[in-house]
Amino acid sequence: MSVSRPFSIARWFHRRGWSDLIIGLPYGWLLLLFLLPFLIVLAMSVGSQAPTAPPVGFGGEYPWINPRGYQRLFTDDLYIRSFLISLMNAGLATLLCLGLGYPMALGLTRVAKSWRNILLMLVILPFWTSFLLRVYAWMGLMGKSSWFNQLLTDGWNLLVPVDWAVKSIPMMHSNFAVVLVMVYTYLPFMILPLYSSLERLDPTLDEAAMDLGSRPFRVFLDVTLPQSVPGIIAGGLLVFIPAAGELVIPTLVGDASTPMIGRVIADEFNSARDWPMASAVAVALLVLMVGPTMLYSRYQARAEEGPGK
Amino acid sequence: MRRSPVFLITVLCFGFAFFYIPILSMMVYSFNGSRLATVWGGFSTKWYVSLLSNKQVIAAALLSFKIAVVSATFATILGTMAGFALSRFRKFRGRTLFSGLVTAPLIMPEVITGISMLMFFILTANWIGWPGARGFSTITLAHITFSMVFVTTIVQARLGQADRAIEEAAMDLGSRPWQVLWDVTLPTAFTAILSGWLLAFTISLDDVVITSFTTGPGSTTLPLLIWSKVKLGVTPDINALATITVVVVGIGVALAGWVMHRAEKRRLADERMAFSSND
Amino acid sequence: MAADVEPFLRIEGVSKNFGPFQAVKDVNLTIGKGEIFALLGGSGCGKTTLLRMLAGFEEPSSGRIFLDGQDMTGVPPWERPVHMMFQSYALFPHMTVEKNIGYGLKHERMTAAERTDRVRAMLDLVQLTPFAVRKPHQISGGQRQRVALARALARQPKLLLLDEPLAALDKKLREHTQFELMSIQERTGVTFIVVTHDQEEAMTLADRIAVMDRGAVQQVGPPGEVYEHPASRFVASFLGSISQYEARVLRIEGAEALLDVPAFETPVRATAIPGLVEGEVLTLAVRPEKLAIHRHPPGGPNAIPGEIKDLAYFGKDSLYRVTLPSGQLISVHAVNARRGGEARPDWYDKVWVAFEPAAAILLRG
């Protein structure tokens, strides 16, 4: 039964007008410092580059808007390529995170209770250290003269014919490096939702399936996997969404000739001082994000409700 | 119980090696005597000495800390208000837009938030002459904006789960709404508000992208300093800085874990006590 | 007993609508000072909504509530001399037992010493003195219930509302707590209104019961009266179990009526109710414990033959389900008073079910 609460404190605040302040302050803040700046981006995306400060103008003639930014998005293959590379890198990183994160999350639900909290803490710990420093750690490892690169190089040289021997493996400044570092930095985002959806599963379901004659792998396919789908989707989008718009990782370890979209936006804005173009690319990136985001909010609601609903 | 299959344990070991080998390597190389960051040149603590005597680093760390404290505090106030509003005022004008505005910054790519803020600040400087110079104030405003929504999410979830009957009980016992808020609602949401503050603080302390757009000459935060150094390649004093960070965070997390473990043990003891005091 | 007590709480024509749904329909009740009054009904019958209107959490859509002569309309919960014991107890989790009990006293004009004394007296009343500095999660469910009671009583309310006070306790504790509640009520003299869905709880605790269904009060009276003289088929079947059959009045013979009950196939006698006319069709209801079961045709009126279809043996008593000649069933609750002697009826035995004319309840509508 839905019971209205005439004397709940919220209602009282509302009647006395305090709710205007409680809602209005954060609302106004976000309108002014989040929505308005975003509307500026939207407006800039149809402006023209101008030799003024700020370097943008709106034409004096009807229709005042300049679709140049959007036209170039579809004609200049720099943009199309960078969009494709972003989607590919983010998608690959998501799949690798899933491949590594799923068995890790499942493994975490199987270790003894006393160990589990310590191991979970170890998953979260890197997340609390600086993001930048975690990227930096891999720069050290991937460098040509690092012990890690040399170890891999020695391994390679041992396995392949002498002719193919190399002095070092070129890892830095490549899409390989970008994907690797993305997997490294975003893996906790995959493990944690997966773990929480797997942990909630009723172990007696497994036992029931085994009791009915399924072997362990079959039980995994029939019982565990279907129930963890919301966790997979939530984790996947938590990795995919920030990875697709990533700026720091491609700048530090990526290949400058095949930039990701985040870097294109920053370059257009900072180096080329082309506000309209940067804005148009930003708007296009957001449009691409809308689908996955809506998927995410749907599955997040479902994941919070628990499995099997 | 179920056996833990060898495969899962192997993957777990590999995963944790993947998590920690880069960090451990960085820590080992922070004691490297060689100027070449990737070649071992004997044990030395000289990078720590040079790091800690570097006035620029100290100033950047202080600025970061100051921004993080101020922005986390304002973000917590605003975020808690928004969380309270969304969980308690069921219907108000513009609620849909408001709940959209509260989730959008969570998924907005940082680059876009960054350039939109910068355009906004440049345009307002042009129109109304503010901000005169970008720096502490613009960075802090930006940080408040994108970290308040994290606080909102946490507080809203907690207030949504809270037992409303205890607020009614306080009213029934003679407290007016403001007092109910102060005596009951905020204390029961205290841990959520505190973890919101901590999250906002961490996010602010760690942010590079948005800070890099909203900063101005002379205002270099620690992440910005690291960013500018690292863009040029691997430098040994960053290894030392990273080691300090990892150790500090590690101690913090271990301490928090210990406190939580103790609280858990106390909770179990309390449960036993409650059980044995049964009449 | 309370009908002659001066009215202390008057509920006059109170209704409550939630949109198109009418949760409480035109309730009129008068409750005396010092009474324990129970609102009894199933879930969604409106009893909780009525209680919340008394506490001030809901405003009646129409009607008025007078407490001790004062109109309560528009008085917010924090100004009402009415306190509530919540079903979940609603103890403040971050305050000790002591602080919980003393919380309401901050709003009283009293010195710190008086306040401490009052808290101490309350702790004493509910026997929780040794637990004063514990937090709610450090005490048992029964103790929590007592903290909630002490907290609500600390400000000496004119009226104490108890929302399902025993629902969260296990069965054993419930019986004990029931009597404790009654003794505390006697000692403090505060008027109690108890909301419950449990008829046994209502009957043991309350001086008077109001049975509610679909928002309306169906019957008000002392427990014995409501049980033995239900005013409607709903009240009859809600309190205890009862078998009901359609009946038609054949003749009225002084204080008794001769009825044709198709289910019994033989006419039976029942104590007449006022205004009964020949040919009237109504319901004859009889409670299982008012029936006797015989292995041989008994003398006297109202003996109906049947066959035992089911029986449940509980030790001190047994429950039989007897198939009547018409095929309908009747339940009989018999005390196993004798040991040995005549064997108890068994499955498929042919038996006679008999009842006194005064045991039959005639219900209209």
Write the layout of secondary structure elements.
The complex is a heterotrimer of chains A (309), B (279) and C (365).
Chain A: H1 9-15, H2 18-44, E1 48-49, E2 56-57, H3 68-75, H4 77-110, H5 113-128, H6 131-142, H7 147-159, H8 175-199, H9 203-211, H10 216-227, H11 229-244, H12 248-253, H13 261-270, H14 275-305
Helix pairs in contact in A: 2-14, 3-4, 3-14, 4-8, 4-11, 5-8, 6-8, 8-11, 9-10, 11-14, 13-14
Chain B: H1 6-29, H2 46-52, H3 55-88, H4 95-107, H5 110-128, H6 136-161, H7 165-172, H8 177-188, H9 190-206, H10 209-214, H11 222-230, H12 236-276
Helix pairs in contact in B: 1-12, 2-12, 3-6, 3-9, 3-11, 4-6, 6-9, 7-8
Chain C: E1 7-18, E2 21-32, E3 36-40, H1 47-55, E4 62-67, E5 70-71, E6 82-85, H2 97-102, H3 112-125, H4 141-153, E7 159-163, H5 171-188, E8 191-196, H6 199-205, E9 208-213, E10 216-221, H7 223-228, H8 233-238, E11 243-253, E12 256-260, E13 268-271, E14 281-286, E15 292-294, E16 303-313, E17 317-323, E18 329-335, E19 350-354, E20 361-363
Parallel strand pairs in C: 3-8, 3-9, 6-7, 7-8
Antiparallel strand pairs in C: 1-2, 1-4, 4-5, 9-10, 11-12, 11-14, 12-13, 14-20, 15-19, 16-17, 16-19, 17-18
The residue ranges of chain C in which pLDDT falls below 50 over 5 or more consecutive positions are: none
Count the domains of chain A: 1
Percent helix of chain C = 10-25%
Radius of gyration of chain C, in angstroms, nearest whole number: 25 Å
Give the name of the CATH architecture of chain A: Orthogonal Bundle
CATH superfamily of chain A: MetI-like
> The CATH topology of the largest domain in chain C is what?
Rossmann fold
* CATH superfamily heading of the largest domain in chain C: P-loop containing nucleotide triphosphate hydrolases
C-alpha geometry of chain A: flat
Quaternary organisation: heterotrimer
Shape of chain C: elongated
Please bin the fraction of helical residues of chain A: over 70%
CATH architecture of the largest domain in chain C: 3-Layer(aba) Sandwich
Major sheet details of chain C: 6 strands, mixed
